[in-house]
Input
Amino acid sequence: MNKKIAVLPGDGIGPEVTNQSIKVLDVIAARFGHSFDYHFAVVGAIAIDQTGNPLPDATIDTCLSSDAVLFGAIGDPKYDNNPSATVRPEQGLLKLRKVLELYTNIRPIDTYKALHHLSPVKARLLENVDFVIFRELTGGIYFGKKEKSADGDAATDECTYSKYEIERIAQLAFQYAQKRKNKLTLIDKANVLETSRLWRTVVQEIAISYPTVTVNYMYVDNAAMQIILNPAQFDVVLTENMFGDIISDEASVLSGSLGLLPSASVGNKAALFEPIHGSYPQAAGKDIANPIGSILSAAMMLDHFGLTEEAHTVRKAVEWTLLNGFVSKDIDPVNNYSTSAIGDLIADHIERNIGLSVSANASLNKSTII
Ligand code: IPM
Ligand code: MG
Output
């Protein structure tokens, strides 16, 4: 299989972690007989520095003409404490989501037994935690009308959702629930917000077509508590843009480190794959960041291409590093490995064909005894 991949390393630790994913994709390509062509482009603060624009047209063109986008991270402290900055790195990511029509953001929340001790949540509550957040990504308050009064003493962010915007992500979430434990939880604030009541109405209508899926509804304040009290109750979680942003960061603490979690954003054009962590500027250039969130995002990209065996091979190699203590500083502050060393270990593990299964070899017409 030949695929063109737009690579947008972005800011902070983005380039370092993305390089590890490329290493891993390269060994996957070699082992399984694929070719991945990478086309690099700038986004975020680095793009502002180079062009004055957080999402230059050349970057948009590269993404639109690619099969998928591998994204690093975005953000720079020089903009964080300057509320009057008119151009901000984050605008690049938001615009890219809009341009690529990435209306569904999928964030799997997995926990690893070897890392249970790292979570502030008690290990017994982490047993069987395995859920997926479907976050709406191109609507709601993020993209509503924004206004500041002339005197600067009042500001408005409008939150609007259309039935169509809710339906398209809800369909994907229900289909996904069917492939899992047939359980879907809609997180909203329907006791207060009109948009949330529309979400409930639309989800109730769609639920009729998915009789095997049990649907329950949870207010976001309660959900914030339930994610910590009883995280194993969730299977597929469906929610709007801002609630999804907040609860996915909260849910990430279950896994022990934000640095482990990947995401996929899908829509009508090229899909985008990015770790859920930020640009972590304090670590930039130090080779200490956790590359696993990016590498698992690359695995989601392989799944998206239909390369299930390949994706599985990457995940197995990641698990092997975690089990053997080949981990970065966020996971073990005393005995740890550098970003690039972890990338090398995962790539070597795949190369030494430990993850290569009989069926993959058979489909390549190769001997299974290499
Ligand atoms: C995320 C991030 C972004 C968001 C920021 C960087 C704009 O927090 O992907 O979760 O709020 O969506
Ligand atoms: Mg976020």
